Amino acid sequence: MTGTADGHGAATVPATAVGAVPGPPAPHGLGVSVPPLDSIAKTQGVFPYAADLWAEGLLWAAVLRSPHPHARIVSIDTTAAAAMPGVRTVVTHADVPGDAAHGRKVLDRPVFAAELVRHHGEPIAAVAADHPDTARLAAAAIAVEYEVLDPVTDPEQAFSAEPLHPDGNLIRHIPLSYGDPSVVGDVIVEGVYRIGRQDPAPIGAEAGLAVPRPDGGVELYTASTDPHADRDLAAACYGLPPELVKVVVTGVPGAMGEREDAGMLLPLGLLALRTGHPVKLAATREESFLGHAHRHPTLLRYRHHADAEGTLLKVEAQILLDAGAYADTSADALAAAVSFACGPYVVPHAFIEGWAVRTNNPPSGHVRGEGAMQVCAAYEGQMDKLAAKLGLDPAELRMRNVMATGDLLPTGQTVTCPAPVADLLTAVRDEPLPALPGDDADADESEWLLPGGPDGAGDPQAVRRGVGYGLGMVHMLGAEGTDEVSTATVKVQGSVATVVCAAVETGQGFSTLARQIVQETLGVDEVHIAPVDTDQPPAGPAARGRHTWVSGGAVERAAKMVRTQLLQPLAHKFGMSTELLTIADGKITSYDGVLSTTVAEALEGKELWATAQCRPHPTEPLDDSGQGDAYVGLAFCAIRAVVDVDVELGAVRVVELTVAQDVGRALNPRQLRARIEAGVTQGIGAALSENLRTSRGIVRHPDLTGYALPTALDVPDIKIVKLIEERDVVAPFGAKAVSAVPVVTSPAAIASAVRAATGRPVGRLPIRPQSAVAHDERR
After folding, report:
1. What's the confidence (pLDDT) of residue 3?
2. How does strand 245-249 pair with strand 218-222?
């Protein structure tokens, strides 16, 4: 759809937008390291987050959560809470006027538990009061009588346990079958691997504000990463048509995909509609840990077959994902795990069985690299075992088996995108190794370089160095038929451009990219990005870097349509086609130099706009044998890890991580490198420390003291030695998403390096100290 400001179909968009940074013109064009659009506001502490919002007549909300992982609710008595001074209302499951259940993929999660509690921290009731302390005290005053039930916390027991949900305990089963099951290799290695429960741990906990509207609707202000999906869930819950519910996206204080807790958002709107007042909730860190989804804890059993030269022949695997109490995106995570279970290697025969099951553990869902990260740790462990059994260098064994463009995945899908895995591995393998402690530092500095730092309890003579490798892959778009559409509008008036797109900026740099696209296409300096809300057409979730592809593609198409509108009158005047005119450095010139004018002059007195969509080619679900073209694009990464391990204490220090990655095209090199470094750092946490521990379903230490995130002192030198810019021809700009694949790869590389240092199998992430203690003969 296109139009001009003549009153015929023109879109109304704001002339200015939150987040625009005034100042001198920014560098133009893709491929330039433009600073993030919101960097100044964030560094000055004036960037608006949901926790900062205020409204006249504001009330405060608090949610009562279950102290049990599994229990039957006998009764709920809200009398005492409702009678407390300052309390305006109390809501339970009986007060939900619409759908009582919600969910990302399956509507199986209640807004408030009604008869059964299925996980620790499940919402039971919510309170609105005139002060946050009053709201919390009132929530604590709600009397709930429970009949405590035995929780099912072992996912292997879920197959034989009584159903925890009306839909049963099995969420999905994928039996992938590819090739000849009778093939047997000359060399066979087996392994069992366990991956822990990593939490997104966003820098800002969930918060939101609900404001009732005079028309009976409600507006929800929150850090949503998929506002239209949240609007539809909320409208169904409130029994309202979608047009009476509006979601306005505030600043997102860190996100690893769809990390927000809809179970926090939905009660807010109920309270606002019931009281007629704005209602705000700022979750505590404990509530954040209990409410939102985590990475799936996973049990993996593998058997690899190879010939005497180390060529892979067959991979057999069983993959069991613990979904927690509800389905969420577990079916998608399982599909990714099964599809990429063999890694970026050529495997002619593969037989993979995957299950995702319900338990009474905390909920699992989308966390960056879901499914792919767990299997990467397992198949790379298998490659290390195979190399040791064959007496081969681990990098050489990997090189003999890496895939390339044109190879097949075990799902039968052809890898049509660039897959320069061999070049990536060569780049990290050939990079010089870092110096040993003491080689290039004085004695005091050397102490800091040992595991545990200075004054550590270990003996420096017990420190061993290890070098390990990881090769990882992720999908970007189109998971099993998902419609990955996005819509964008570009408007230009008075040499100022505005982009309207519901793509949420979560730190992945979409707002900066959109500005670069418009600047390069139209030659304008000042580009504003409109705030995101559900009055705009949907753009889909901010996950897997998809907005670079689909939303960036929509912005590019809309900008090119405006460019045509701008150039057509000039081309017609001079009797040439618009293809013969170029825009560069704010000037419009013809191929022969006859026409030369500025963009500002050509735009004077005009208002141009266009709306466009981007929709990648369709995919298909995996069939009953795990076969199908399920994904649009793939991204690859190679990482070499160097670690020092105190083999007596099991302390691990990551010395260096060397990274090579295929990025398609570097649209903003500095931002791209920052995203890779951030992904690697998240992977360090998964490898060494991050695990939300539970005891019979009860979350232990749900705070940032008990949950060990990596600090600046834990992050080593991250050397990005090669970025391969081999453009994916089906992607806008040829670019690939970059942040998920280093998260997937770095834990496997670190585990590989610890194996090399200790001789231990290291089959569990995060790596426990006892797993990093060397065999006696290695000491």
Report:
1. 42
2. parallel
